[in-house]
Design brief:
Elements lengths: L1 E9 L2 H17 L3 E5 L13 E7 L2 H8 L2 H10 L3 E8 L10
Antiparallel strand pairs: 1-3, 1-4, 2-3
Length: 100
């Protein structure tokens, strides 16, 4: 499963609502599932932003298709000037985990 990782600072909360509506259309079309969507967080190391989101897609290709889709292009345009984003798409890992 591919993951989309976002850290953001929202600078215009009212205007940002349009991004949420438009991005929701793209996420629904490509089967995205929210694993993290805001909520309390504590920056333990490094520099972060005020809001974090983790989305899950069925695979890496689908995540890239969603980001590059016309639907998400509309959402990105709606976000301009309303938030500062760091966004990464990463392929999931299904291998061995550390021993407990």
């Amino acid at each position: 499963m591919a993951k989309g990782l976002v850290s953001a600072d929202i600078t215009d909360p009212d205007g940002y609502k349009q991004y949420l509506a438009e991005s929701g259309k793209a996420f629904a079309k490509f089967g995205a599932r929210f694993l993290v969507r805001g909520g309390p967080s504590e920056q333990m190391e490094g520099k972060g932003r005020s809001r974090f989101v983790v989305l899950e897609f069925k695979d890496y290709t689908t995540a890239l298709e969603c980001y590059r889709s016309p639907e998400y292009a509309i959402a990105r345009a709606a976000r301009n000037g309303r938030a500062m984003f760091d966004l990464v798409i990463v392929d999931g890992y299904d291998g061995p985990q550390p021993a407990v």
